[in-house]
Design brief:
By secondary structure, the chain is mostly helical. Helix content is 73%, strand content 0%. The protein is elongated, with a radius of gyration of 19 Å. The mean pLDDT is 89.
Length: 194
Amino acid sequence: MRPRGRRPGDEDTRQRILAAGRRLFAEFGYERAGMRAIAAEADVDPALIAHYFGSKQGLLTEALRLPVEPAVVLAAVQRAPHDRMGEELVQTMVSTWELPQVREHFLGMLRTAASHDVARDVMQRTLHESVMVAVAGLVEDDPARRSALVMTQMAGLAFTRYFLQLPEVTSLTTDELVAAIGPTIQRYLTGAVD
């Protein structure tokens, strides 16, 4: 017979809290997703949120962590011929976003970041410290500018395809996206950006 009351901390408690935080931040935004509600969703005592994450903002930071390591995902781009890196980057990113667990996590990140300044700042820092650094590693000159330009295009693609679900974008195959967007990414990586 199962004991009554909240479950004590165990090895999956942290993951339950994290999953509850991600879901509630995405659904209600940072401000309206209260620690008690997150704890109730995870079926834990609210004190365990502070125990595992330090604070609600600490939970948010962890919830907005990317589900994949950008440097690992972009390794294929580094191996691509120099004149095909843009196409390979689009191919790699869209293929990664098409994975259901990555897409759901990414959509949650977008919803959360759109809801509050703290969430937006955390996501901006996450992308800057991981994705932009990985993209900067693909270029020979002006890495900050080039990686930021790549991010504008790829963030726009992700936003319109997965968040807004514009039919004109969702109807395109991965190959069509590679053909349409790859040359722009290639210019950002290797061409003139002045």
